[in-house]
Amino acid sequence: MRFLKDNALEARAVELAQEPAVVAAKANLRDTLAQSGLATDDATAAEMPSYVDGLALAVAGDVANLGRTSIAWDDQPDRRWGLDNPDVIYRSATIDEHGSYVISGTRHSSQNIYFQVLDAYPGDGALGKPTGFLAGDDLRTAADGTFTLTLSGEPGRPGENHITLGKGSKRLIVRDTLSDWSTETPAELQLTRIGGPGVAVPADPAAEVARRLSLQGKFWADYTNQLLKALPVNSVVPPTATQGGLSGQVGAFGRFDLATDEALLLTVDPADAPYFGIQLGNSWFTSMNYWDHQSSLNRSQTMTNPDGSVTFVVSQRDPTVCNWLDPTGHSRGLIFLRWQDLPTDVVPGPVTAQVVSADNLDKALADIPKINHGGRQAQLAQRKASLHRRPAAWHP
């Protein structure tokens, strides 16, 4: 699949990913990951080569964009990393803390948009600390949805959209959250540098891609190993403010380890969050295939229980409920829930988890909204059609 509008940048990324230094770094990373202990089921082991190739393309795209002062499309389906959220359009640019920039844009209709500045490229040895932030709720737009946003080391003028770049600012990340894939559209954005130094272009771009690929591949493997060791099996930890991700987001991690005749039932408090979503992830810390499978759901895609809670079912076999999370052949994996734009004094209730055998599943799901085969096929067809609405071409 491809999810990138800039053909020149895409061509340069592909070219860099094929350089001998990068090919060697990919081979070394595959060896490292093979010894990491993360490939705990056949599906995860089978995904490792494509994960490495995708991470190399992601890094190559970022290096290719250095010095261009443009916002690039990130986390495409063939280059996923960092437990990408299927509900989010990610874009990014590398900036200089001493530079001055203007983003010109049109807001459109995403659930929300978030501009976040970090002091590191996530995974390049660290997650990165926030050095600047602006959410769409605070973004002033004209009647037609257009806006300008300035970024610099100086404070902004009263009434203008502005992010003051803190010490070490290096990475601009833009997230458009799409709560309704079938109707919402991400913002149009154009980044311009209007002052200060530009970002230096490395003398040997291929060597820089190889360096970053090795560093990030090891970082995410170590991060996931530590996370898996800390998480209880077939359970979800209490929701807390996300650390190292999106500012102002509440998240909750869990993990599953299920036999083919078992299901994990998760009952969740949406907490009336403007955005609420759940997804499954693999041990390479990426989303699972969400274009052919229902491996993620958000509040616009789910059916609620009479008390307002939502029950999800993780299982290899289709349990004929609306809120099935398909692990795409994985017997083990991650679970991550996100709540966005909650009031600061609201914390969602704990997630209840229950493992149920196939013999007892019908009884356990007696009060859960059901779906038949035709309904499931329509659900998946709508999912794919909605993804094709996104602002760059999707090709299966």
- Helix amount: 10-25%
C-alpha termini separation: 6 Å
Secondary-structure element order, as H and E? HHHEEEEEEEEEHEEEEEEEEEEHH
Biggest sheet, in brief?
6 strands, antiparallel
Strand content: 25-35%
3D shape: globular
Quaternary status: single chain
Unreliable residue runs: none
The number of helical elements comes to 6
User: What is the number of strand segments?
Assistant: 19
Indicate the radius of gyration in whole angstroms.
21 Å
Give the class from helix and strand content and strand pairing. alpha+beta
**Mean pLDDT reading:** 92
Detailed description of the structure:
It is a single chain. With 396 residues, the chain is an alpha+beta fold. 24% of the residues lie in helices and 27% in strands. It is built from 6 helices and 19 strands. The strands form 4 sheets. Strands 10, 11, 12, 14, 15 and 18 form a 6-stranded antiparallel β-sheet that branches. Strands 1-2-8-4-5 form a 5-stranded antiparallel β-sheet, with no helix packed on it. A 4-stranded mixed β-sheet has the order 7-6-3-9, with no helix packed on it. Strand 11 (240-241) and strand 12 form a beta hairpin. Helix 3 (42-64) crosses helix 4 (205-230). The longest helix is centred in the middle third of the chain and has 26 residues, at 205-230. It is globular.
